[in-house]
Amino acid sequence: MKAPPFAYAKPRSLAEALELLQHPGAKVLAGGQSLIPSLNMRLSSPELLVDITGLKGLANIEARDGGVRIGALCTHTSVERSPEVREHLPLLAEAVAHIAHPAIRNRGTLGGSLALADPNAELPACALALDAVLIVAGRKGERRVPASAFFKALFETDLKPDEILVGAEFPKAAKSVFLELARRQGDYAIVGLAATSRGAEKRVAFFGVAATPILLKAKSLEEALKALPTPNADLYNTSATKRHLAGVLLERAWNKLS
Amino acid sequence: MEQALVITLTVNGTQVTRSVQARQHLVDFLREELGLTGSHIGCEHGVCGACTLRVDGDIVRGCLMLAVQANGCRVETIEGLSDSKELEKLQKAFHEKNALQCGFCTPGMLMAAQDLIRQGKKTTREQIRNHISGNYCRCTGYQAIVDAIEEVIKTEVNHGQG
After folding, report:
1. Pairing status of strand A7-9 against strand A156-157
2. Range list for CATH 3.10.20.30 in chain B
3. A16 lies in which domain range?
4. Residue that terminates a domain, selected from A131, A146, A171
5. At what angle do helices B143-156 and B106-117 cross, to 10 degrees?
6. By the CB < 8 Å criterion, does B65 face chain A?
7. Paired residues of A175 in beta bridges
8. Terminal CA-to-CA distance of chain B, rounded, Å?
């Protein structure tokens, strides 16, 4: 189908973008790889799209303070190809290769994926596993939100309608693993996980199991298996199947991290 | 709220300026305003890949980009890459291997395959399948398509570029 009518603005500065978001029914457009399909299917009907892709300084990737700061407008392709990401955040480099297809990765952005908070998506789970901090800009300035407080419910985050996610800081992990089961390359996962280890504790974030990604922290595999989430069934897989597969992935991840 | 905006972009090497509605997709703009109907419209929500275009050198979904977002961009379509002979070897291989299936996906398939070929790397059949995974439709199989792409990659990589 075709998108419903809307107005379009492409601000040149963050201040201008934040001002435009004061309009009732305004919505941020970045890569558009989830927003435009939802418009095409008439699941969303904003009055005004505020295209933030013209904003300067939001597409940088910088290694600093034992981690990497990634601008919200970095495309999945740029994250995948970044030498800083490969060196310091191999988890993200691995995860991004699972996102949809090359033509979509060329436009979809890191910020868009985090702000949408699709519970089946790879990046929100990575943000949780890495204990990332999300940087949110509003008219009163910037605020920093830990990933653990950002993903609130199905497609709901801590972002207010007039705020813009401008980037995220991902601390390095000593070891990390990314695993995803899908029927075919680029499909949404049946179930997947992003896991990191810093010292004795391991953080495992599951996606494709509930309304948000689910973080599990444990020191032993037995403890982790006991805390395994009971996934929601989807159109093709029962809860029991998904729980079994989540357990299989958990054991594989644990063995790689140990 | 309808809104018309004036955009200027380069399509297959020619600069065009038009007034478009904000909601018009890039692929609809190319087909309806410019008559470039080689890019097909299948699913209109980013799943089938039949509308694959090149924007500023990178392949994108023509149904997941608004025409206004292409303002100032360099857009290349199947017509452009075909006329410039960039796709010549690939088209010949598709022809020889009968890699057409029902044919609806073919323009997008050629655009996605060429994106892989121009990377100039040795590529396994599995990597070819992964790269065209965004262009699967309903015919299933894709054996002959993978054969055709594999043949071009083998000749390109063995003869100089790799």
Report:
1. unpaired
2. 4-81
3. 7-50
4. A171
5. 30
6. yes
7. A197
8. 52
Fold adopted by B4-81: Ubiquitin-like (UB roll) (3.10.20)
Residue A190 lies in a domain: yes
Helix (H) or strand (E) segment spanning residue A237: none
Sign of the C-alpha dihedral computed for residues A117, A119, A124 and A128 taken in this order = positive
Across the interface, do A5 and B49 touch by the CB < 8 Å criterion? no
Total count of residues recorded for chain A: 258
For the segment A178-190, the average pLDDT, to the nearest whole number, is: 93
Contact A111, A167 (CB under 8 A): yes
**A102 → closest Cβ in B59, B64, B136:** B59
Write out chain A residues lying below 8 Å of B68, CB-based: 8, 10, 51
CA distance A54 to A45: 23
Please report the ipTM that was assigned to this predicted complex: 0.94
Q: Does A235 touch chain B (CB under 8 A)?
A: no
Report which residue type is found at B78: I
Residue A230: which H helix or E strand, with range?
A: none
Sign of CA dihedral B43, B45, B47, B51: positive
Does CATH place domain B85-161 in 3.30.1490.190?
A: no
Domains contained in chain A, number:
3
The string of pLDDT tens digits covering residues A78-118 is: 999 999 999 999 999 999 999 999 999 999 999 999 999 99
Task: Find, in chain B, the residue whose alpha carbon is nearest to that of A43.
Answer: B45
pTM recorded for the entire structure: 0.95
Same domain as A180, residue A164 = no
- The CATH number linked to A19 is 3.30.43
Of A153, A85, A143, nearest in space to A116 by CA: A153
Query: Tokens 């796709």 correspond to what residue?
Result: B87
- Residue A56 domain-assigned? no
One domain for residues A115 and A150 = yes
A42 and chain B in contact, CB less than 8 A? no
Minimum Cα–Cα distance from A3: chain B residue: B23
Residues forming a β-bridge with A192: A180, A207
Between strands B4-11 and B74-76, the pairing is parallel
